[in-house]
Design brief:
Elements: H1 2-26, H2 33-40, H3 52-68, H4 70-79, H5 81-84, H6 94-107, H7 110-117, E1 150-151, H8 154-164, H9 171-193, E2 202-203, H10 207-229, H11 245-265, H12 269-281, H13 290-306, H14 309-325, H15 327-344, H16 354-368, H17 372-396, H18 399-403, H19 408-423, H20 434-447, H21 454-471, H22 478-482, H23 488-491, H24 512-515, H25 518-539, H26 545-548, H27 550-562, H28 566-593, H29 602-615, H30 618-639, H31 704-717
Helix pairs in contact: 2-3, 3-4, 8-10, 9-10, 9-11, 11-13, 12-14, 13-14, 13-15, 14-15, 15-16, 16-19, 17-20, 19-21, 20-21, 21-25, 25-28, 25-30, 27-28
Length: about 750
């Protein structure tokens, strides 16, 4: 406090000096007096004590002013007497003071030297108390912050809510609420950066106030803006065409920018759901802002591709609504960004990611269907890129070129365009792309026609069958299905027994150990029967069905003669019987109706096929019953996705060596129950001559104590299911900024 009072004293002296100089300037008679006074003034801080000679010269200068201008000297004497007596008293005692200061300097600390730098103030100065910082502040009333910011209270929020709920909403209330929303986000940004946001109009303090501001905007802002614009209930006029749009345009632009910034920073799916619903309500107001609309759509596409299930759906609805409001300017940008996001996020397919990929594909087909003329340009360009990758693989025949084709991104792209062409089958814009897409898909199947890539073959065949059914176009897929039965790898006996059935849903390529399992052969037969049944059931009502199935019937009969597995024989024999029965049915319908029309008459052929389709063929009836059973099986498998190994390498038990009878152990000496199932493994696997899917191996008898010891050893080997960790924990740095928001209050 001593230092503070000394500074106050020094400031008072400085102020008096300025007054003196100003008076001197007004007096034009003595211009040299200012220099004299300036020289006479001592400096603020003197590091060393002044000498007696300097003090005497200073006093002589002041006495000279008395002789030169007595009137000015009298003026100084009356108004600033301290200047004349400045540090000139008791000059005889200066030497003693200097000696005293020198002695103290050798003993005292640096703090005492700093105190000697400043002049001592008088004792009559008032000292401010610490309690003055809180004077005039009341927590229950509206206060003004240090930077002129008004502190938002819950009472203010209630008053704003009442104003927004009025029939005639004042425009000023809307602007204040938007400013409060901006201040809330500014307070969060300032807290994150360790700084304080002084540019905001209001100051938001506390989680309750922050949540109240967000809640007020989400629930009441959009209806209030509609009331301000005077929008009628059934009006089709765009919002930016109303007369009062100019009044809300500026503040609404800032609000939408702040809203998308908040959506970027939120990680909780529940809060994202609420904010996206609010953005969906505000989607009609984004149309006039082209640059802002692109920013919003860019963030929404990220959520559409990577968010949770509910977040994905809401993000897509927002994208669809915003794009349709400004389709002419935004559709090209949105289609390109969404396709790239789809390809980027379909690189890895697993039971967990497959539903999201399927949703992206279906929703992207819907976006392309908005304008087929624009979609043709994108589809032609991307299908051409697929063709270029395939051509490079055929010509170069290198590993990198093969990998550019045989991956999930390529297969998912083929699925997307097949679904799009099938969805737009009744419109002519995209029909010219059917032939190149079918050619590319068949080329992918023929690129590496080995048993290792049978899963990829089946995925491509499924796309071709769906495309053929939707577009009513004949695609020659039957030879590609039947030739699987003639594969040497498939007809070879299995050398290992798989514990779980092998599924091709999330697999493109099989390793050597999987090719040796009986589950591989079971799944191949299941896929062959399913694809043949699906395709032939659709073609069973065509006029040329009897001629179409001749190669298939011959191939199935040839395989049944060589097959020794009773399960395979039973399935294929039942399918063969239904095919032959449907073939006889079509021949009977031909003879009954006395087909006399020309085959070139497309309308007559379609009318005849429609009559047969209404009667339903035996193969069609059989396929309907099989489909119900198959869908039930798929739903059961989907419910068990948590139990499926992430690597899709089904673990298998290895029998111990016959000589020792000791269980196999790894390099660390631990019991190895489920060894690695890589491609290098399998060369030394035991051979089973039986074709049954489950084979019980004889186990040596063991005592009860040994069994308990082995069970105790097995427990550490079991891997507990990994629970998904929270994205942001309490101790982390990236904590959700609206984590305290309670949705139940909404």
């Amino acid at each position: 406090m001593k230092v503070a009072t000394k500074k106050v004293k020094s400031l008072d002296k400085t102020k008096s000096k300025k007054t003196v100089i100003k008076k001197k300037q007004q007096s034009e008679e003595i211009p040299k007096l200012a220099k004299a006074v300036k020289k006479a003034k001592p400096s603020k801080v003197e590091k060393q004590p002044k000498k007696k000679t300097a003090k005497k010269s200073h006093k002589q200068d002041l006495e000279g002013i008395k002789d030169i201008d007595p009137e000015f000297y009298d003026f100084l004497k009356k108004n600033d007497k301290e200047l004349l007596d400045f540090n000139l008293m008791d000059s005889d005692d200066d030497d003693e003071e200097d000696d005293k200061q020198q002695k103290e300097a050798t003993v005292a600390d640096d703090s005492e030297e700093d105190e000697a730098k400043y002049h001592k103030p008088s004792n009559d100065l008032a000292v401010a108390s610490d309690e003055s910082d809180f004077e005039g502040e009341d927590d229950d009333e509206e206060t003004i912050a240090a930077g002129g910011q008004q502190k938002i209270t819950l009472n203010m929020l209630r008053q704003w809510q009442l104003q927004l709920e009025k029939p005639n909403v004042p425009i000023e209330a809307v602007r204040q609420v938007i400013q409060a929303f901006n201040s809330a986000l500014a307070s969060i940004s300032a807290d994150a950066e360790g700084e304080q946001a002084n540019a905001a109009a209001y100051k938001v303090v506390g989680a309750a106030t922050f949540n109240g501001v967000i809640q007020l905007c989400v629930l009441h802002l959009q209806p209030a803006i509609v009331q301000v614009l005077g929008v009628k209930p059934n009006s089709s006029l765009p919002l930016h065409k109303h007369k009062k749009w100019v009044k809300v345009r500026g503040c609404l632009r800032y609000y939408l920018g702040d809203l998308i910034r908040l959506i970027e920073q939120v990680s909780s799916s529940n809060i994202l759901t609420v904010l996206l619903k609010h953005l969906h309500q505000m989607a009609g107001m984004v149309a006039p802002f082209t640059a802002l609309g692109k920013t919003i759509l860019k963030r929404l596409i990220v959520l559409w591709a990577t968010g949770d299930e509910t977040v994905r759906v809401l993000a897509f609805l927002c994208i669809l609504k915003i794009t349709r409001k400004q389709q002419a300017t935004m559709l090209n940008h949105v289609l390109k960004a969404m396709y790239l996001a789809y390809v980027r996020n379909s690189k890895f397919v697993s039971p967990n990611t497959l539903p999201g990929i399927n949703f992206m594909r279906r929703s992207l087909v819907e976006m392309f269907a908005l304008d087929l003329n624009v979609s043709y340009q994108h589809a032609f360009l991307y299908i051409r890129q697929l063709a270029i990758h395939l051509r490079n693989a055929v010509i170069l025949k290198k590993k990198d070129s093969f990998q550019a084709v045989y991956n999930w991104q390529f297969i998912n792209s083929l699925r997307l365009w097949a679904d799009l062409l099938g969805a737009s089958a009744n419109k002519p814009q995209l029909q010219p792309l059917i032939y190149p897409l079918v050619t590319i898909t068949i080329g992918v199947i023929r690129l590496i026609p080995t048993a290792q890539y049978f899963p990829l073959r089946f995925h491509c065949l499924q796309s071709l069958i769906s495309l053929s059914k939707e577009t009513h176009t004949y695609v020659p897929v039957l030879p590609l299905i039947v030739e699987v039965l003639r594969s040497n790898t498939f007809n070879r006996k299995h050398t290992s027994v798989s514990m779980k059935p092998l599924q091709f849903t999330c697999i493109l390529r099989l390793n050597k150990s999987q090719l040796a399992e009986n589950g591989f052969r079971d799944e191949v037969v299941e896929q062959v029967c399913g694809l043949l049944l699906e395709y032939l059931a659709y073609q069973s009502s065509t006029l040329a069905f009897s001629d179409l199935v001749v190669p298939v019937v011959m191939a199935l009969k040839a395989y049944l003669k060589e097959c020794r597995n009773a399960n395979y024989v039973r399935k294929l024999k039942q399918l063969l019987d239904k095919i032959q029965e449907s073939s006889r049915f079509i021949e009977q319908q031909r003879s009954k109706s006395n087909v006399t029309f020309d085959l070139k008459d497309a309308q007559a052929v379609q009318a005849w096929e429609q009559q047969v389709r209404n009667k339903r063929t035996p193969l069609d009836i059989y396929y309907a019953s099989w489909l119900k059973t198959h869908e039930t099986k798929k739903r059961r498998q989907a419910a068990q996705t948590d139990d499926i190994n992430a690597d899709y390498d089904i673990p298998k038990l290895k029998r111990p060596a016959a000589k020792t009878g000791v269980p196999m152990r790894n390099e660390d000496g631990e019991l190895e129950l489920f060894p690695s199932d890589s491609e290098d493994d399998g060369a030394g696997l035991p051979t089973d001559d039986d074709d049954d899917s489950e084979v019980e191996q004889p186990q040596p008898k063991k005592s009860k104590r040994k069994q308990e010891n082995q069970e105790a050893k097995k427990q550490p080997e079991e891997v507990a299911p990994v629970e998904p960790a929270d994205e942001y924990d309490d101790a982390g740095t990236a904590v959700d900024i609206v984590k305290d928001l309670d949705l139940n209050d909404w």
